[in-house]
Structures are given as C-alpha cells and as structure tokens.
Amino acid sequence: MQIQVNLKDNPYKVFVDEPYFLELNTKVALLSNPKILGLHLNSLLKRIKCEELFIISVKDGEEYKNLASIEEILNQMFNSKLDRKSLLISFGGGVISDMGGFAASIYQRGIDFINIPTTLLACVDAAVGGKTGVNNHFGKNLIGSFYQPKAVYCQSEFLRTLNERELKAGLAEFIKMAIMFDENLLDFIENIDETTFLNANCKDEIFTQIISKSVALKARVVENDEKEAGLRMLLNYGHTFAHIIENQTKYKIYLHGEAVAIGMNMANSLALNLGLIDEKECKRVENILKKFKLPTTYKIKNLNEFYEAFFLDKKTHHQKINFILPHKLGQGIIKNDISKDMILKSLGQFQ
Ligand code: GLY
Fold it and tell me: Which residues bind Zn(2+) (predicted)?
C-alpha cells in the first residue's frame, strides 16, 4: 500500500509492505545502531544500489538521543565527504529517525533523507510527519526541527524481531491516535487478539493493517497542520505527562510508548475530573492499555516539581499549559485554562 502525504512543499509517499528497490545515484549515509545492523543490514543491502554507502552506527537507546550523538553523526558525515546531493537513510526506531532527520536537516543546511523504520512505534508515528530532534537536560525533544523525509518505507518483516515489550509500546501510539481521532479504530484495537498480535507466524497482516490505518490518519493530520499550530497538537495526547516521566527516570525505565500509556491514563484522570469523559470511557481506555499489558501508573514523588516541568513543554505558550485531553473517545480537545488546583488534584491521584 502507498499512502501519500500531500504537503504542498514536501509531498512524499509512505510505502507499507510494498516491495522496493532504491536505485540512488548518490552517496548514502546509513544511520542505524549495532543491534539493527546485526539483524537486518544484509536484508536492506539487497534493496539499495548507490554510489557509495557509509554506515554510521550509534548507541542504541533514548538516553543517547542527544546533541553529543548528533555531533558524532555529523562528524562521520563530514569524514565521509557527503555533499549536498547526498542522502541520509535512517534505519531503526524512533530514536534513529528523530536523530537522522535532525542531522539531515542541519548538515550543510539540509540534505535529503528517507526513513526505513524498524519498530512498530516508528512505523505508526515517529517516522512519518517530519518531527526530528533530540533530548537535553531540560526535557525530551526540546531541540529539533520540522524536516520532512523524501519517502518512508515500512516493512513488517523488520518488526518480526521485536520483543513483546517493544510491540506493545508501539501499539500505545496507535491507541493514542484512536482516542484522539477515531472511535472506530478503538473498536478495531479492542478486537485485536493479543496472541495474534504477538504471534510470530501470523502477525504480519495485523502489522500491515495497524501501520496503514495509522499512517493514513497521521498523513491527514500532518497535511492539515505540518508545524503543529493546532490539530497536530492532538498527537501529543499523553506526551505532556510522558515526557516528564521519561526525563525524571533518565530514559532508563520506560520505553517511550510505555510512558505514553501512563501519560494517557494521567490525561484521562484530568479529563474525568473536568467532566470531559465519564468513568466508563476512562475505564475503557485503561482496560485496553491493560489488555496489552502497558503500564498505567507512575508514582509522582514531588507534585510541584512535576507541575513545574509542564512549563518546559513545547505546547506551553505564554505560561499557559496546553493539555491534550479526550473530549469523548475518538475526539480530542486542547485545554489551556485548567486551574493549578485541578491539575494538582489530578496529579495527586498518582502519588
Ligand atoms: N509524534 C507526534 C507528531 O508527529 O506530531
């Protein structure tokens, strides 16, 4: 299947489980990590022909998604004498696509890049839409750019080596989209048989369905609002909380999707306290998260510290925190007028 992302200046296609061969008349830097290269490099190389290929392998993990790694990537690109016509391929999960896109956006003021995601999370979300960047001491993804790939190639075969935890974490981002945009998707997710989802022999078809539904939805959102002025903010549902949790736990305890699952549950508590959703809807989401054994709770040690961290969120403007909440299931809303008391009361339920 091919899904077009119809951006006026940067249109591109996302290929989902389509055979492809990349004939590239240029130098290519292939950015990945040792684990992915060990598992999938040979298979990928059968699909690429180019002038020269340079492999850039960086450490695996969100804790390495920082400016030091970007510097290392850029140095290797300069050492390989890549020029403005060269191409960068990000081959990995969300950490790799975020860093690859960012490095491509600043190398000699910008070179082309494509994403070949190897995690479910990157296929359903991170690799599509052009958000690139790194974390720093102050928080997650606070440094970066909007820079669209030239194409994205999602292949279920690369997902076969993921472990259960990684698969479920990827599903969390899909659940997020369903709650924000489409209740029918939530029905679809509820009907996914957990064993089928995790079973190596029959999971490809379910992956193709999940990825294509998610990418189709995300493409429409990004076309509408590439730079996150409004609608795209809804894709941050759960993330306002998740980014703080990930930063507080130094990116070592939770996979991003797991933190998002907790964040969605926290956002739902707030939405419930505000009367935006009812107990039944709140429970429905919690049950879906629990069905896929995603975490739903986190012990907040210091309420005020957690609250203050909201002010570093990219969605906080003029000291107003923009919370992304479900209005009903399948429809999101942005609220920036919630009182501090109400926020603390909701956070207090996680102490
Ligand atoms: N991951 C959220 C977005 O791309 O907007």
Answer: 173, 239, 256
CA–CA gap between residue 2 and residue 117 (Å, rounded): 15
Residue ranges around ligand 1 (CB below 6 Å):
125, 129, 131, 232, 235
Judge whether 120 is annotated as a binding position: no
Strands (E), the chain: 2-5, 12-16, 22-32, 48-57, 87-92, 112-117, 131-136, 139-146, 151-154, 323-328, 331-335
Domains of the chain by residue range: 2-161, 236-351
CATH topology of domain 236-351: Dehydroquinate synthase-like, alpha domain (1.20.1090)
Which atom of ligand 1 approaches the CA of 236 most closely? 2
CATH topology of domain 2-161: Rossmann fold (3.40.50)
The pLDDT tens digits of the residues spanning 299-336 come to: 999 999 999 999 987 777 878 889 999 999 999 999 99
| pTM beyond cutoff 0.85 | yes
Write the pLDDT tens digit of every residue in 84-101: 999 999 999 999 999 999
* Catalytic, out of 232, 246, 258, 286: 232
For residue 323, with 0-12 CB atoms within 10 Å meaning exposed, 13-18 middle and 19 or more buried, which class applies?
Answer: buried
Q: Is 107 annotated as a binding residue?
A: no
Q: Given a cut of 80, is residue 155 above it in pLDDT?
A: yes
